[in-house]
């Protein structure tokens, strides 16, 4: 019964061999591809981050979060409870740490910044850094700035040639950030784009140039005023960095007042029941596919988000010479001239 080799398929049992070939491919590829799906965005430079339980409802990702709790890194003490929110004490001294103590193995190239805070009346027009990372030479590698006077948000990064890459977000929907209510500001930093979210809604996305890598030899500041480097007077609830640019987009703000989120039930792609269930369906498939197909009318989906802004066009060619213009109006009479030398001699 074992006279034929494992890959010798006679014509009469071609379907049987094909099914087993597909099955072996599924068994070998599912753990690998699933591992890519779950781990492709995980950077090994980032440690696991401890979060409150509501974050697992906010973001429906069934895996461990990685990143940095900057309140924990900067040893911010817990303060009062306002509007059912436990606030953090910023103190009066500049909040900075050596970058290598904040990001021991560096920061992933793509990440999300999440900060929940409320501005006070005296500081709603301040210009301040949510985050600022310097290199050892004192140049800014990355920074997130809130400008209350202009009602804008700025993201600054360092390019490959040590040049500054500044992106200013001026969308009017950002004005709500300065109404002295609690808001969640999210920033998604991808390899070629930066997106700003306010209360889990996409406000604006801008295409970016290539950024340089992170140097951990400098210093990192949080919640500091641009004017004097002292902590800005805000009510801060949380300030987090996730090593995944998708978190800012996936956050649903389920912890916000009046927001109710239903848990999304998803299957674990590496679980055995999924593989065995798919195998059962594969082996029970008929040898021929059915010829009848459902001719169902397609439903129109919701309108997508605006696309990314394109790059500037190339300089156009020089235009043709214009037509000859009409004669201009007659000029004014000239000034009376001086007497000539001959005239002076005759008068003598």
Indicate the overall shape. Answer: elongated
The class by helix and strand makeup works out as: alpha+beta
Q: How much is the average pLDDT?
A: 77
Order of helices and strands: HHEHEEEHEEEEEEEEEEHHH
Order of the strands making up the biggest sheet: 1-14-5-10-11-12
Number of helices: 7
Low-confidence stretches: 1-9, 20-43, 269-298
- Into which percent range does the helicity of residues fall? 10-25%
Q: What is the terminal separation in angstroms?
A: 143 Å
* Secondary structure tally: strands: 14
For the report, how would you describe the main beta sheet? 6 strands, antiparallel
Subunit organisation of the chains: single chain
Rg result: 33 Å
What proportion of the residues form beta strands (DSSP E)?
A: 25-35%
InterPro entries: Collagen, ConA-like_dom_sf, TSPN-like_N
Main location: secreted
Subcellular location: Secreted, Extracellular space, Extracellular matrix
Domain Thrombospondin-like N-terminal: 61-245
